[in-house]
Each structure stands twice: as structure tokens, then as C-alpha cells.
Amino acid sequence: MALPRDYAEQPCSLARTLEIVGERWTLLIVRDAFYGARSFGEFADHLKIPRAVLTDRLNALVGADVLQKVAHGRRFHYELTPKGISLWPTVHALIQWGDEHYAPRGPRRLFLHAADEQLVDTGGVCTGCGQAIAPTDIIIKPGPGAEPAHAADDSVTVALREPHRLLQPLR
Amino acid sequence: MALPRDYAEQPCSLARTLEIVGERWTLLIVRDAFYGARSFGEFADHLKIPRAVLTDRLNALVGADVLQKVAHGRRFHYELTPKGISLWPTVHALIQWGDEHYAPRGPRRLFLHAADEQLVDTGGVCTGCGQAIAPTDIIIKPGPGAEPAHAADDSVTVALREPHRLLQPLR
Hints:
2 copies of one chain form a homodimer. The first copy, chain A, is α+β, with helices and mostly antiparallel strands. In chain A, 37% of the residues lie in helices and 14% in strands. The first copy, chain A, is built from 7 helices and 5 strands. Chain A starts with 12 loop residues before the first helix and ends in a 6-residue tail after the last strand. At the A-B interface, helix 1, helix 2 and helix 6 of A face helix 1, helix 2 and helix 6 of B.
């Protein structure tokens, strides 16, 4: 992945991280992968970005070992690698900051510990049982700020109207 | 702050957050503010970005209520607002992901609980006492991956060669 020259003098780990995931759209693709999107079509339908841009971003994420291409019939699916899955605290923290400051009706989506259906907090800890919860044990379900059913009809949005376990394929 | 049109159809809190902090340089400015940079000159010297770009980004962060301008003698300082301080879990998660995957010599900087000098983990919990640690109770100090002393001589880098409490001014 080409490194933006502007960050070249910034050796801090934040700068290095932004080289990989600071690219426009990249974290939205990673988020969708946590939500269970796997096919090119799912990412394209949900994010509504030009297909050439999506191709470029997916290839960059594969090159950075955040996503891996997995044969699926005659096509490929994109799945998070362990390195990609370790982005969950970042993605979750970004979502929660947005929920806190830009979601007047409340969170659009809730992140719950699958075992007891209690909220998982910013630190990744279940507010019910107090355990640190891996993303594979988190259920996502619509919150008070969820968009009305007529707002979008792409396959990802429709699938996420029902509770869904993170990292499980949507279909 | 102008919203990138490309995100307009993305109502999720992650997209809204990226509208504010996904801009190139923005999270590096916020990071420096956590480290104690406050004056225009400190941000400019450390980040080495064009002054016009820095002015634009600082104004956008003030407009988004992430930074506030505070009179300091005949000039202004930029300090994180409570909303800005609530970005700490995000900044910390991004730094830790970079440390995990892009710091072969180990972290450049360590984040320690001031009271017992034990590491604070990704979830913001002290690995020593198990308490959730606010950024004001975190000491930053050079880690095994810290750059050699001759690598940079800007005021921020030099000040951070000594242990420093987050959010306290560097000078």
C-alpha cells in the first residue's frame, strides 16, 4: 500500500496506523467486514462507492494483511485476518464517540455480549458480567437511533435489522 | 466543518465520526493535544505540515468543539474540550494497533497509570490495579521503540523524552 508522503516524517504508531486505515472509506469497509459483509457486492451496495475505488481499497487492505481473499464458489470473499480483527477496539471506539456526540436519538446499533445480552462498553467490557468480550462474542442489533425500514434497502442494511453476531457472514 | 460529500449516505456513527476526525492530519493534531502541545508553533514544529493546512485543521476542530481556543498572553492556545478528551479511547486504540503491528522494536511510547506506573491496556484499564484510567491519570514515557535523541529536535519530541502526564502543557 502506498504510504501518503505527508505522514512520512511521523514515526508514531498512530501515524503508521493512519497510513493503513486513515484512508477515506477504509474504516467503513473494515466496519462492514465486522458486520458480516464479505462479497464485493455487499460492500458496494452498502457503501455506495464507485466500484473502482472499492476495488482499490479492498486490494490495499489485502496488501496490508487486514483482509484476506477467500475463494467462494467462482468468486472471492473478503474476510478479516487476525490483524484486521485486532482493529475492533478502534472501530468500536470511533462508533461510540459518534454515538455519544452525533446520535441525538441514541445509538443506531447496539453492541451486546451474546451470553447475557448486556451492552459492551467502550473498553470492550460487558456492563453485565464485567468480562472482556471478543468481537466474536458480540451481537449487533438495532438501537433507538436505527433508521426507519424504508430508509435503505441494500442487503447489508436489511440483514442488520435482525440481531446478528459480529464476523458471521450476513448470508 | 464541511462534510465530505462521499460520506453523506452513511448515517452510522463511524461515518459521522470520520467526518470530524477522519480528515488527514486531524487525529495527529488531537494526539499532540493529548501529549500537551498547545501553541500553534508546537503543532507546526512537531507535525511539519504547512501552516495554512494546520490553521485550517485547527479551526475545523474548534468548529467541531473538539478543541477550544484559550487566550494565552497575546496569542491563543488550543486545548481539548471534554468532547475532544472523549476521543482518548479512539486515539489510544489506534496507537496500540500500530504498536502491535508496526513497531518491531516495541512501542515508541508507553502509557502508564500515574499512581502505580503500570501499563494501561487497550480498554483503558490499568494492568496493575485493574481500574479504568482517565487520560488525566496517564503518564506517557519513552518505550523500547523510541527514536534516538538525534532523530528530531522539535520542542514536542524533546519534551516527551521525559515522562509527561497527558493533557498537561509541555511548557
